[in-house]
Write a structure and sequence with these properties.
Length: about 120
């Protein structure tokens, strides 16, 4: 159905920040709090694990110029047993490792962890 030309468009809602203490996920559109158990700087959605390319070198610096969508690619385990989420930027292809948070979707993490085992079948 075509739009009526005589009607004014409504302004778009903010796509990044929905309040002083939350942001909206670019993938699943969930409102996500900045506070995260187990990490000082939340950088991905706990539901779908998608992120934005915001940080450059230091977590929380927010100095990356790309601002592309970061797709969760795989998991890595540090020598101390901590799980790291590996993201790839869809725009520039840069890889980054990020700590998982205590409220991340456990099912999504386990699916990602066993994906290489399922591919061998």
């Amino acid at each position: 159905m075509p739009r009526r030309k005589d009607r004014e468009r409504r302004p778009q809602r903010s796509k990044i920040s929905t309040g002083p203490d939350t942001f909206r996920c670019v993938s699943c559109r969930l409102d996500v709090p900045f506070e995260a158990p187990g990490t000082a700087h939340r950088n991905h959605c706990p539901n779908c694990l998608t992120s934005l390319h915001l940080d450059r070198r230091v977590p929380g610096d927010r100095q990356a110029a790309c601002r592309g969508r970061m797709h969760p690619l795989s998991l890595s385990v540090r020598h101390d047993g901590e799980w790291m989420l590996i993201h790839e930027c869809v725009s520039c292809g840069e890889l980054s490792a990020n700590r998982i948070a205590g409220d991340d979707n456990a099912l999504a993490l386990v699916r990602m962890a066993v994906a290489p085992l399922m591919a061998k079948r």
